Amino acid sequence: MVTIREVARQAKVSVGTVSNVLAGSASVRPELRRRVEDVMRALDYHPNQIARSLKTRQTKTLGMVISDITNPFFPQVVRGAEDAAILRGYLLITLNTDDSTERERRALSLLRAQKVDGLLLTVASGREDLTHVAQFRDSGLPIVCIDRSVPEIDLDLVSADNVHGARMCMQHLLSRGHRRIGFLGGSPGLQTAQQRLDGYEQTLRDAGQKVDPKLVRHGDFRLESGYRLSKQMLLEADPPTALFASNAMMGFGALKAIHELGLRCPEDVALAVFDEVPFGDVIQPRLTVVAQPAYEMGRVGTELLIARLEGREKSPVSIHLTLTPELLVRQSTATRLS
Q1: What is the DSSP string of 14-65?
Q2: Which of 239, 288, 298, 311 could cross-link 272 (Cys pair, CB 3.0–4.6 Å)?
Q3: Yes or no: domain 4-47 corresponds to CATH 3.40.50.20
Q4: What are the residue boundaries of the structural domains of the chain, listed by start?
């Protein structure tokens, strides 16, 4: 088995230099780093991370817990996190909770048993006891929240500007002549859901309109609730002329309801979605979306977590980073006569 000493001998450097290269230390000159890496590839050298972790007290492993892997938003977040982790020499372990607090509790316990160095967390939408999150933090392991903050526990957070994104979308729908705009909201009490609802309501008030409670429905960010709530509203005596779904999965549900009822989009009812959707510019009609910087959220969150681990970020207070979404106007919100 190839040893670190053999790598050092063939690269004509010290064992300490090889160790610094493995640790990702910036103190190694670029030409030395390349020489060491070339030798490691040539010898097919793979360091024993278990043995290294006993010495360094770090496993170079990060945990990531997300709420719903079937939601197309999260694979992009995971991709950004994984790319950033690999670039810094870390392994990423990703677990899914299906928005269950009990599954989340088990996931955090498992990751602690695996001795991860830190955690990226999209907290489950349930409002149950979150003691397990506080215990993870209090064990000395840093946590960076992605997309959603944890109620009553102040942690580092990377999220999108949900209020601004919702306002952009609503201003667009109003500019197209829509006045009865149905809102398909996420889980009540979830911060992201509330912020998107705030943006919806603020824009209506700014336009001199009252918020009609009949046009606001709360679901759970899943396809079935988007389908059910859209169908309910569209079957009312005075249905909305446009729907604003507060995430991609509810948007898919709304599109299913529109088609099932024999309605045309956008001629009979326009549809806008908070979240870019897979093939959103291919699906007919091409969907107008508020595209979150999902990949960047994962990447930036991971970089922040690693900066905490490596001592490059020492702020004693939590850091909240807000990224800006983008409105992509497509066919599903065509112009309507006022």
Answers
A1: -HHHHHHHHHT-TTS-HHHHHHHHHHHHHHT----HHHHHHHHS--SEEEEE
A2: 288
A3: no
A4: 4-47, 59-159+294-323, 162-292+326-333
